[in-house]
Amino acid sequence: MIELRGATKRFRGSSGIMTAVHDLTISIRPGEFVAVVGPTGCGKSTTLSLVSGLEPPSSGEVLVDGAPVRGIPAGVGYMFQQDAILPWKNVLDNVAAGPRFRGVPKARARADAATWVERVGLAGFEAYYPHQLSGGMRKRVALAQTLVNEPKIILMDEPFSALDVQTRALMQDELLRLWAGTAAVIFVTHDLEEAIALADRVIVLTAVPATVKADFTINLPRPRDVEEIRLTTAFLDIYREIWDSLREEVARARKGATLSAA
User: Is the pLDDT of residue 258 over 80?
Assistant: First the structure.
């Protein structure tokens, strides 16, 4: 479903050319949930931008469904860290906005939106406006906005990082329930526990310029309850194994930041 073949991305900055990601080679199957972790600023979000077509690779290839990405591919949903809820629209019309932009008739768009509003647990809040919603409720709206378009690929850039611990766990469970293998997911996070609890695979990126350091298969049974699975011995064993790989890159990134500051 998704392939990055030796993908490299360079940006021009005030101090010259900066390589954000280098020689990324990743393959993701249909319906697979892949989490990407790495040090702060290592290029995780850049990886999503390459897959989404928001940024072209400087070299290498990015393919979706076997076709090179030349713009935003059809069937891609993107959920950002900051939600894209329109403040002047109520919950129902926010969720219906995507289908309407794609040319779906208004009645059908609103009917589909109503179905997803109910599925994300917001039945009864259709007429509420964003300023009337809690942070968790806004995230449910954003999730419905993404899923109402029935994407075959879902890109998620730290979507739950701003939530409190309890709400975050609820949203993680909600995501797994609604996803259930229906789309390929790339989920960027700084939280290794979150990555392991959600994903089929966890990819560790190196410090910048990022490339793939390790790719771990998460052999934990589905369906999962994210709070319960974190207490299992299998989860802790996987966490230790991945953290051994990740902490070296975190240390490298910190050392680089200290040298740059000096």
Answer: no
What whole-number distance in Å separates Cα of residue 7 and Cα of residue 2? 12
DSSP character string of the chain: -EEEEEEEEEEEETTEEEEEEEEEEEEE-TT-EEEEE-STTSSHHHHHHHHHTSS--SEEEEEETTEE-SSS-TTEEEE-SS----TTS-HHHHHHHHHHHTT--HHHHHHHHHHHHHHTT-TT-TT--GGGS-HHHHHHHHHHHHHTT--SEEEEESTTTTS-HHHHHHHHHHHHHHHTTSSEEEEE-S-HHHHHHH-SEEEEEPSSSB-EEEEEE----SS--HHHHTTSHHHHHHHHHHHHHHHHHHHHHHHHHHHHH-
pLDDT, tens digit (0-9, with 9 covering 90-100), for 14-39: 777 888 899 999 999 999 999 999 98
pLDDT of residue 14: 72
**141 contacts 126 by C-beta, under 8 angstroms:** no
Q: What is the average pLDDT across 118-142?
A: 92
Which pLDDT score is estimated for 256?
65
* Phi, psi torsion values for 11, nearest 5 degrees: -125, 145
What pLDDT shows up at residue 261?
Answer: 45
The predicted model gives 44-63 an average pLDDT of 92
